[in-house]
Amino acid sequence: MRNILLVISGPSGVGKGTLARLLLAEDKGLVGSVSCTTRAPRAGEKDGREYFFITPQEFRDRIAANDFLEYDEHFGNLYGTPRSFVERRLKKASVLLEIDVVGGLNAKRLMPKSAVLVMVAPPSMEELGRRLAGRGSEGKEAFAERMRRVRYELDQAPLYDYTVVNDDLQRAKREIQEIIRKEKEKTI
Ligand code: 5GP
After folding, report:
1. Ligand 1 centroid vs 26 CA: distance in angstroms?
2. Is the pLDDT reported for residue 117 higher than 80?
3. What is the per-residue pLDDT for 137?
4. Which of 5, 124, 127, 167, by CA, is between 20 and 30 Å from 60?
């Protein structure tokens, strides 16, 4: 059995964070990676849990030191996956990354033998729009930008290995668990 780098992507509001938490809680052979970001913590977020919240200067220093497996900018903030953590953990377990499509495709390019890309899609755009509006944590501009980003992310789904529709959380979770099981058995 091989260890895989499971990349979970999908537009914000699609429930990929909840799915990732469930997958991690139920599979001891799967560990999560914590990304670094320059954005400010949202209410309830804790440094070192959702993200490592670092300054733009620190982020740039770490880019220069080749510390990120991949990084990308969203809404003016930088997000990156710490390289050493992922490489170290992959020797012992499968690693889950919850990142955007640009990051996911980069991860696949850099680690083609390990990366398995899963896109989580909403049952419909209308439903996702409702969920995002319900968050109410941002202004109209930021909301419109997020919706544009949603379309962009979903348009990349054909480049991913799998697309899982999150119509029902438990069902979607089981579908991803089945993907993990199959992928770990593959000899590459
Ligand atoms: P949020 O600010 O809502 O937590 O995340 C914004 C976007 O950044 C999401 O699409 C999320 O998947 C993405 N993201 C989070 N961590 C990383 C990372 O390490 N690398 C990349 N490329 N994107 C990330």
Report:
1. 23
2. yes
3. 66
4. 5
List the beta strands (DSSP E) in the chain. Answer: 5-9, 30-32, 35-37, 51-53, 68-74, 77-82, 94-98, 115-121, 162-165
What length is written for the chain? Answer: 188
Q: Whose CA is nearest to atom 22 of ligand 1?
A: 103
User: pLDDT class for 7, splitting at 50, 70, 90?
Assistant: very high
Tokens of 117: 């890309």
Residue nearest to atom 15 of ligand 1 (CA): 99
Ligand 1 atom 10: residue of nearest CA: 100
Of 107, 106, 186, the residue nearest 96 (C-alpha): 107
Nearest CA residue ID for atom 12, ligand 1: 99
**What's the total number of domains in the chain?**
1
pTM for the structure as a whole: 0.87
Per residue in 54-76, pLDDT (tens digit) is 999 999 999 999 999 999 998 89
| Ligand 1 neighbours by CB, cut-off 6 Å | 12, 35, 39, 70-72, 74, 79-81, 98-100, 102-103
Atom of ligand 1 nearest to the CA of 37: 16
Mean residue pLDDT across the chain? 92
Q: What residue numbers bound the domain in which 35 lies?
A: 5-185
| Calpha distance 116→30 (Å, rounded) | 13
Q: How far apart are CA 140 and CA 173, in angstroms?
A: 32
